[in-house]
Amino acid sequence: MLIVADENIPLLDSFFDDIGEVRRVSGRGMSPEDVQDADVLLVRSVTRVDRDLLEGSRVKFVGTATIGTDHVDVPWLESRGIAFCAAPGCNANSVAEYVLSVVSLHIEKKGLKDWADLSVGIVGAGNVGSELARKLDWLDCTVKLCDPPRAALEGEEGFVSLDEALACDVITLHTPLTRDGEHATYHLLGAGRLQALRADQLLINSGRGEVVDCRALLDRLDEANPPTVVLDVWEQEPRISPELVDRVWIATPHIAGYSLEGKVQGTEMIYQGLCRFLGLPVRKKAGQFLPEPALSKLSFTSAASEWSATTVAMRSCYDPRMDDSRLRLTMDREARERGGAFDRLRRDYPVRREFSSVKIQLKGTSKSLQDTFRALGFKLKI
């Protein structure tokens, strides 16, 4: 059995080498010739999987190690009897931790006291949005969830309108990319909605680049009193706009979900899907392959405030300003080189571990701080 896989999917050999031969190819440049003799295809979001790629191949199973599926023509796969598996929720915690780290920097930048001073509008309450809401609730933020498809199915209680979410101090986008239907998200934030954003607001997009009209955003940022903007996802990746990078506060190369735990869990989920398809036992788990983290323990005493302790711990695990610096350095290259540089930042991304990889030692601290660390996912030693 031949398994053709995006070369950037982690632990391919560890999970799949006893199932078949693994052939690694470039996900961005994957061609019909690459997959023609494959039985199994494993991809990420950079590969468009449809008739143009698979017509005439012998592929019988497609797995994407991503939470999103807008890059896969699922109806066409179904029409051809090709099994499909995604990895919903695999990196939800990673993206939530990215947003928390960004918001902590924003609180400092604005001179606010702590999390309770903020209202946060979460647009899209799927795996990522729901996990983020849970953590923010514990931090005493005022959280407003906007998810029209869920509200239509479950009832309006617990959800707000898009306009109400967009009036919050922080707006964070976690919707899928859909182009048709009543709740299409393509250019959900177009010129009109961007124009209404205030200078004291923070807009974060770590969902899908095309949910924001980046041309209109660039125009808005050139006007008086623009909002503060953080972008992890962009239109026209990997050839993103250097002008937009220059104008946003924090710019990162589509890595919000790139914790090691999130990436390995994505591989594990498509491994499980392939085992089910082939009728094989599931013998491997992500935890078998996670190495010892570079940072394993932090210690706080009763002298530490809840704000300082949690932010120090968060940023010890992840500080988005490092990724911002790396991306900005690539913008000095010639236009024809920037796309490749963007992809290399993702391919060669340094190991980033989630909060759960760190044990927090607390000496004489309050129960409130202990509970907060637990809610954020850290391990505790008291």
From TrEMBL:
Where do the catalytic residues lie? 208, 237, 254 (proton donor)
Return the EC number: 1.1.1.290
| Pathway terms, separated by semicolons | Cofactor biosynthesis; pyridoxine 5'-phosphate biosynthesis; pyridoxine 5'-phosphate from D-erythrose 4-phosphate: step 2/5
Q: Which of this chain's residues are annotated to bind NAD(+)? A: 147, 175, 232, 257
Statement: the UniProt record of this protein carries the keyword DNA damage:
no
Q: Which UniProt keywords apply?
A: Cytoplasm, NAD, Oxidoreductase, Pyridoxine biosynthesis
Residues forming the Erythronate-4-phosphate dehydrogenase dimerisation domain are 289-377
What are the recorded GO MF terms, alphabetically?
4-phosphoerythronate dehydrogenase activity; NAD binding; protein dimerization activity
Source organism superkingdom: Bacteria
Q: Which PANTHER family match?
A: FORMATE DEHYDROGENASE 1
Q: What is this protein called?
A: Erythronate-4-phosphate dehydrogenase
Q: Which organism is it from?
A: Marinobacter profundi
Lineage per the UniProt record: Bacteria, Pseudomonadati, Pseudomonadota, Gammaproteobacteria, Pseudomonadales
